Amino acid sequence: MSETNPAAAEVAAPHRYTAAVAAEIEARWQDFWDADGTYAAPNPKGDLAGDPGLVAKPKKFIMDMFPYPSGAGLHVGHPLGYIATDVFARFQRMTGHNVLHTLGFDAFGLPAEQHAVQTGEHPRVTTEAAINNMKSQLRRLGLGHDKRRSFATIDPDYYKWTQWIFVQIFNSWYDDQAKKARPISELVARFESGERAVPGGRSWDALSAAERADVLGEYRLAYASDAPVNWCPGLGTVLANEEVTSDGRSERGNFPVFKAKLRQWNMRITAYADRLLDDLNELDWPEAIKLQQRNWIGRSEGARVDFPIDGEAITVFTTRQDTLFGATYMVLAPEHPLVEKFTPAAWPEGTHDVWTGGHATPAEAVAAYRAQAASKSDVERQAEAKDKTGVFTGAFATNPVNGEQIPVFIADYVLMGYGTGAIMAVPAHDTRDFAFARAFELPIRCVVEPSDDRGTDASTWDDAFVSYDAKIVNSHGEGVSLDGLGVTDAKARITEWLQGKGIGEGTVNFRLRDWLFSRQRYWGEPFPIVYDEDGIAHSLPESMLPLELPEVEDYSPRTFDPDDADTSPETPLSRNQDWVDVTLDLGDGRGPRPYRRETNTMPNWAGSCWYELRYLDPHNSEKLVDPEIEQYWMGPRAGQPHGGVDLYVGGAEHAVLHLLYARFWSKVLYDLGHISSPEPFHKLYNQGMIQAFVYRDSRGFPVPATEIEERDGAFFHNGEQVKRELGKMGKSLKNAVTPEAICEEYGADTLRLYEMAMGPLDVSRPWDTRAVVGQYRLLQRLWRNVVDEATGEVTVVDAEPDETTLRALHKAIDGVRQDLEGLRFNTAIAKVTELNNHLTKAGAAVPRPVAESLVLLIAPLAPHIAEELWRKLGHTDSVVHQDFPVADPRYVVDETVTCVVQVKGKVKARLEVSPAISDDELEKVALADEKVVAALDGAGIRKVIVRAPKLVNIVPA
Length: 957
Fold this sequence. Notes:
The protein contains 31 helices and 33 strands. The strands form 9 sheets. Strands 24, 25, 26, 27, 28 and 29 form a 6-stranded mixed beta sheet that branches. The chain has a 4-stranded parallel beta sheet with strand order 2-1-22-23, sandwiched between helices. β11 and β12 form a beta hairpin.
């Protein structure tokens, strides 16, 4: 009746669980949780200190990756991870843990600034509106967050400490001997005392203030330098690599992006490369994420080699120093600082026409090629398939092992961001170098003996021969010979020779580059840095923090001709002269002095580098975090030698940058004694993505998914057949489904169950609104097992369950416990469903102990209906802090199992036996069975194979 006539069903069952009933229940319990502070996690001390008994419980710190509050709001794909962590957090509370679970907002960023540029509305206004909307959407899902701990990165009370951390990093250096960061004042003391030599050989006292600042800038962990950046004149700003498309244009606006050198702030993350690598071993992270970080850091062992040129040297880093005798030319990155220094006025005699690019002079050729390279992205420059381009600089360097004069080129496939920005080219044994040598008619010399039949005359080869397990040939000179050695031995010998000559050394190189930390935007954290009359940077004292963003009339960066690379940014902050030019007393004994503020802002990564620490102690205005509180929640412990968050859930797209930056900041703060945990996140879990079908018309444009009609396996929109494909869910693809829509039709608990039941949490899965009803019906059956739909009365009985029900109950308890602990929420729901169906099919009133256990089992997954039924069952306290059921092992094991008995490999009998039966007992039972006796027919027995409790195999004589 309910399927065909819903109105009649509501009359017959006025107390049925419906979407309207769910909405009323959910809103009421959400209000209760907020008023009661149900999810408040007490600290051991401070503003959030609470019940000592609760603090004494084992703790569990559970986090989601920081969400950015989009003005478009959430679709049903966004809450997947939030629901998962909520389920896990609720389970942990019910298993005796003090759980910290909260959510803040990563609110600085480009989208809000873009809106401000377009509308003139302050980005804080739109950002706060988006935060409030997101809070409302998340509240409706019943997420159990400790709301006292929530914040946004745009709150001055928060970014005060982001600025404070920057100051700590600025005022620190990395001591290579101690392998840790130390205050910069200790380095100054060493220079002053003479314990450490000042670079350049002068005494510290003899240096001017500007010269001292330059020296310290070479050591500081945060430093300003002329750095190669992605400059986009059409947007008037520098872009991060991830904001540049593979064809060298801006993601926003599709403007050309150029390589330029600008004064930028950098973080010396490279100092921590080894520790960032080594400490990965102790983290409980997916191996794929660890591998991505290892590859990004890119540790490689090799040698630095000096190639003399005009009384100086070009230094290269190579992992194949064993092939030095095969180097027939050099290539520098177009941006290399030595290019101009060694470029002669005219082409040397005998220069090949193909080397000049058709230009009259080396300077003209270099300038033209640099402009061409500046318009390409790093990805485009390193693409293997493209034609190799380059130009001769007009200079020659000396190969140090044989004295040969080899030409020096610039080419875009060499980047300043890796190694030294210069390579020795061994074209016989490197694919890119081989292609370049063929294009520019350069010599190709074999120095690694090929394992195939191509021979050692490399001029006849079709491609390079690359091997790390071969014999070195044609590699001998004055004082050194590598001929006949394997690669490993040749590397060791040539490295020792280079070090003895003072022209090279064995070294380790990293792909990792220092972190470019400046943005030419308004909507970001201001740098707590001012410059004096000499241009020396000074950090603001803590008493002057936070340095808040000033009001500006125009949020737009100044834009230029998109094709004019010879321009530089003008930031919105630089236009507010009253804010930029100030007189301050920095407390350094020099009194009030005029200063100029830094007018760049920090990148949006800054606020997300340390937010886990603010969750611990969010109201502390005196310290970054109280040491005792930090130790309690994040300190090292058994199984977590580096400490950190117990569970961190988020998308795999943050595998490198956010996670690497946060690890770096944690290590600096740990070295300086501010925290006890050198790693921020002990366990990382990457949830999959909820996908959705995209429908495209004949033009390839998306059409609204809600307007699609399906007929005979085909899909139509307004009568026109359209194509269907699986993709992301989003507003632009017209396939977004909002959480509100599902909540209104089925309720939030149904949405929670459906998202968790769709499949394994770490696997992407397609959304299907039609399938949501399955979880809705589960909740309706659960409701009916406790509540009479006609009267609203509780129907459970105070009676003991029969043994069959006990077994069903305790198997469910055992399975659900294990599944929730292992984040296997889909299989946990399946086990709850199985138990619920068992009770439904029994057709009798449900015994109270079983009903209460069932409600507790589903409470982490569907908390609103669980609270309601728990209260209807006569309890006055919240279900949130009840003990999770514990299985009785007597009922978990099957009462009997089926044992198959085979004679001559054929099944002759099936026996119902105890799961605990021994091999000997099972053999006796099997041999006594009348069907087995008949099958043997008096024959002797040669062998009996027993695999208790499920198999007996009898081999007759």
